Amino acid sequence: MFAGASVWGIFLIAQLCVGIMGNSLLSLLYLYTFLVQPHLKKPINAIFMHLTLVNILNLPLTLTPNIMASFGVQRFLDDVGCKAVMFLFRVTRGLSICTTSLLSVFQAITISSVQAQWVWLKSKSSLWIFPSFLFFWVINMVIYSHVIHGIRAIRNFTLIGSGFSNAYCHTLQIKASTSWHYISILLARDLVFVILMISTSLHMVKLLYQHHQRTQHLHSPSLASQPVPENKATHTILLLVSCFVFFYCSNNIVLFYYFYTAVKIQTMEVMVCILSAGYPTVCPFLLLKNNKILSKCPFSLPFMRITNCQKAFSGCQGI
């Protein structure tokens, strides 16, 4: 059993390292753009940078307790540590939902601005970015202030009954009415931002389809096949949203089952952890894939060489 737990621990360490490195590279990339090459700066880059910073905060909070438990470390967190870690984990997870939704909305406004009725909204949207960040932080900290009072450290590493728990922390037993009231607030927050995210994504898909239909009528096939920069960015964001929805739904299904399981299973706990950290881990690599600024930064040259070698190798296989 200990050998199996160690394997899970090594996997979680690998996930943590990959996620932190990817998000750190992307953060440095946007920081370099803001400071050294401001002419390449776009308003949407501020949203990308906020998302990567949230991911960097979220990954250690999500994975570290399970990593320590996998290697048999006991009493890693006391009551104060549990309150701090779980509060910050929940806040950063909520910020991830809100920021991804904002990203989808902002890009939908950007590619819709060719229509006259959307032009005024595009000119105003960039002014709403930083106030939106402040609103997201405040609303999530208010919602999850309940966590500070409802979390305690596990004393005997055995928890029986419904409720949330990880290797070191568990929720206190609370009244059913209070529990459902709190869950309804969380569901309302999640539904608002997820529905907003999906609806704007469907709107972008519709606009991309209309653009594709128009290019079919162009006389020059080569011109029609050239990718438009905004369309390329839209494809990346749609892929990002799809990735988020997949991990969000998968994590909630497993977490819901785990929450109402009387006897907590360690493997199920690790699966919840992996799925919860899945989106912050994958997110930076989806954004790096089609990032033009990457080729202009000196610290990204090794990454570009690897990418070019992969493309060349793929081309040789196709010959």
**Overall morphology:** globular
Contiguous uncertain segments of 5+ residues = 222-227, 303-319
Main-sheet strand order equals 1-2
Strand content: under 5%
Order of helices and strands: HHHHHHEEHHHHHH
What is the averaged pLDDT score? 78
What's the tally of helices? 12
Task: Estimate the helix proportion, in percent.
Answer: over 70%
What does this 3D model show about the protein?
The chain has 319 residues and is mainly α. It has 12 helices and 2 strands. Strands 1-2 form a two-stranded antiparallel ribbon. The longest helix is centred in the middle third of the chain and has 40 residues, at 176-215. The chain starts with a helix and ends with a helix. Residues 222-227 and 303-319 have low confidence and may be disordered.
Descriptive terms for the model:
319 residues, mainly alpha, 12 helices, 2% strand, globular, disordered C terminus
Secondary-structure blueprint:
Elements: H1 2-35, H2 43-70, H3 79-112, H4 116-125, H5 129-143, H6 145-150, E1 151-153, E2 169-171, H7 176-215, H8 221-225, H9 229-259, H10 266-276, H11 278-289, H12 301-318
Antiparallel strand pairs: 1-2
Brief characterization of the structure:
With 319 residues, this protein is mainly alpha-helical. It has helices spanning 2-35, 43-70, 79-112, 116-125, 129-143, 145-150, 176-215, 221-225, 229-259, 266-276, 278-289, 301-318; strands at 151-153, 169-171. Helix 1 packs across helix 11 (278-289), helix 3 (79-112) runs antiparallel to helix 4 (116-125) and helix 3 packs antiparallel against helix 5.
